[in-house]
């Protein structure tokens, strides 16, 4: 098996309880964490499991070492890419279900991006709520050099986060962009010198974990329902069901008392 997706406890120095945050690490040594088929399947399973953990408040997605994700593991491509059925099975049965699991996760998801973020890496980052990058990170999807377009659902995902101009440049010109360009486009939330990225990431995670977790999950459900036009989603059918919740009461009481809320 080539590569793996690991879940690691959050052990950074900021005051975050271990149960509140985790790292999901993409690891494919020697291939800049390119996604193998096994890794796509693992990623889906990991996020479906994390979605079921009620105490979790933040998930960090990052690559092992000096790259986020350099794309797909091209060494596997000859095994399935040249037949329509097997190619469809790969994109619709492995890649998209994994990306969908990230998109359906109600826990705030932070991407920490260093080095190469190409193809599949851009797709994975597109699933995240907050995207932090080192100023040395590089972004692109130069698959036109390999002779194929991006799969429809994956292209729609990237388009929704990156916008039409940059998406067209990536896919039609095989353009590669620096972190500052991606920040200016609105794709990235923050860009920092590489040496400072970890400290900024720790502060971001601590800030998220100190906020109301129920509100965060409801916000993600709400934004997803609005984006999908799902008028039947529970969060739209009963948008004020949280009224008598302990978290709601604590937040208001803490504000009135001028103290830090204990969520």
Structure description:
With about 260 residues, the chain is α/β, with parallel strands linked by helices. The chain contains 10 helices and 9 strands. It has helices spanning about 35-50, 85-105, 120-125, 150-160, 165-175, 180-185, 195-210, 215-230, 235, 245-255; strands spanning about 5-10, 20-25, 60-65, 110-115, 115-120, 130-135, 140, 175-180, 190. The strands form 2 sheets. Strands 1-2-3-4-6-9 form a 6-stranded mixed sheet, with helices on both faces. The longest helix has 20 residues, at about 85-105. It is globular. It starts with a strand and ends in a 6-residue tail after the last helix. The relative contact order is 0.12. The mean pLDDT is about 95.
Summary, kept brief:
This protein is α/β, with parallel strands linked by helices and 263 residues long. It has helices spanning 37-51, 84-103, 120-126, 152-162, 164-173, 179-185, 197-209, 213-228, 234-237, 246-257, and strands at residues 4-9, 21-27, 58-63, 109-113, 116-118, 130-134, 138-140, 176-178, 190-192.
Query: CATH top level of the largest domain?
Result: Alpha Beta
Q: Beta-strand percentage?
A: 15-25%
The spatial strand order of the largest sheet comes to: 1-2-3-4-6-9
CATH topology of the largest domain: 2-enoyl-CoA Hydratase, Chain A, domain 1
CATH architecture of the largest domain: Alpha-Beta Complex
- Label the structural class: alpha/beta
How many independent structural domains?
2
Individual helix count: 10
How many DSSP E strands?
Answer: 9
- Shape estimate: globular
Keywords: Isomerase
Protein name: Enoyl-CoA hydratase/isomerase family protein
GO molecular function: isomerase activity
Family: Belongs to the enoyl-CoA hydratase/isomerase family.
């Amino acid at each position: 098996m080539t590569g793996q997706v690991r879940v690691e406890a959050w052990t950074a120095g900021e005051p975050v309880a271990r149960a509140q945050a985790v790292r999901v690490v993409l690891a494919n040594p020697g291939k800049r964490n390119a996604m193998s088929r096994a890794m796509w399947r693992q990623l889906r399973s990991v996020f479906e499991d994390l979605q079921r953990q009620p105490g979790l408040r933040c998930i960090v997605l990052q690559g092992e070492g000096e790259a986020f994700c350099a794309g797909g593991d091209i060494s596997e491509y000859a095994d399935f890419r040249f037949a329509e059925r097997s190619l469809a099975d790969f994109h619709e049965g492995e890649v998209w279900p994994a990306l969908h699991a990230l998109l359906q996760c109600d826990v705030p998801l932070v991407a920490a991006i260093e080095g190469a973020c190409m193809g599949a890496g851009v797709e994975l980052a597109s699933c995240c709520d907050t995207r932090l990058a080192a100023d040395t990170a590089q972004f692109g999807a130069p698959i036109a050099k390999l002779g194929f377009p991006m799969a429809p659902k994956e292209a729609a995902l990237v388009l929704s986060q990156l916008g039409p101009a940059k998406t067209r440049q990536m896919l039609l010109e095989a353009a590669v962009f620096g972190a500052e360009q991606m920040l200016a486009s609105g794709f990235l939330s923050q860009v920092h010198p590489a040496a400072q990225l970890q400290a900024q990431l720790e502060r971001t995670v601590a800030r998220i974990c100190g906020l109301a977790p129920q509100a965060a999950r409801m916000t993600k459900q709400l934004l997803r329902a609005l984006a999908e036009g799902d008028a039947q989603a529970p969060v739209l059918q009963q948008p004020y069901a949280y009224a008598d919740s302990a978290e709601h009461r604590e937040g208001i009481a803490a504000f009135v008392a001028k103290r830090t809320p204990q969520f």
